[in-house]
Write a structure and sequence with these properties.
The protein is 61% helix and 3% strand. The protein is built from seven helices and two strands.
């Protein structure tokens, strides 16, 4: 059976734009180190730098492979840890057990994917309008709104070296869309956090059954 694996690569890819030969060599060296660490320890430095992202990228794929290939299910009504499919119990019990375990794993996968901003099914409905407004703001007022600076702010910058960064919401014509965008972002963050909490609760409940 060919299993399509998903997860998080440890290979650092080339960033946008031109890459100097010396930077390319450094990147290759880092990748060699990361690969060696993955093989020897099971994780590498780049995984440690973002354990939360690593978990959300890797765990759904592992659970999906377990769901698609498992030969057993938790013995929901018995005294043993796991029950092998087709080894003693009736077909009805086996089928019901496998179906229940499949549903549990599917829910865990769904919740973890929903916890990840990259794979979440819910998106910010104001994102396109906000980015359009942000681009207009930059074209009119500069990348950080430099053209909005007052004479007092310019004088303070020269004297103290402090710079004010303007945002689209500082301009009346863009304030409404920025407020809507960030309010929607807050709701999405809350939704993803709730999905994460539910997934972790399921991990706590079924942790010792995640094997085949």
């Amino acid at each position: 059976m060919n299993i399509e694996k998903t997860g998080k690569t440890c290979i650092e890819k080339k960033y946008k734009g031109f890459e100097k030969p010396v930077d390319k060599i450094k990147r290759w060296k880092r990748n060699i180190r990361f690969i060696f660490q993955r093989v020897k320890y099971g994780y590498c430095d780049s995984d440690v730098w973002s354990i939360d992202y690593w978990f959300l990228m890797v765990m759904p794929g592992m659970l999906k492979q377990l769901k698609d290939t498992t030969h057993s299910y938790p013995d929901f009504c018995g005294n043993t840890s796991h029950a092998l499919f087709g080894t003693g119990k009736s077909d009805d019990v086996d089928n019901a057990g496998m179906k229940k375990w499949d549903d549990i794993l599917s829910e865990m996968i769904f919740l973890l994917n929903e916890s990840n901003e990259d794979t979440c099914t819910k998106k910010n409905k104001y994102e396109e309008d906000y980015h359009k407004a942000y681009q207009e703001f930059r074209e009119k007022y500069g990348k950080h709104g430099q053209k909005l600076r007052t004479e007092d702010e310019i004088a303070r910058e020269k004297q103290e070296g402090l710079y004010r960064l303007y945002h689209p919401g500082d301009v009346p014509e863009y304030k409404e869309i920025e407020d809507r965008y960030f309010e929607e972002s807050r709701k999405l963050d809350q939704y993803r956090d709730e999905c994460k909490d539910r997934a972790i609760d399921m991990f706590k409940e079924w942790f010792w059954d995640l094997w085949d």
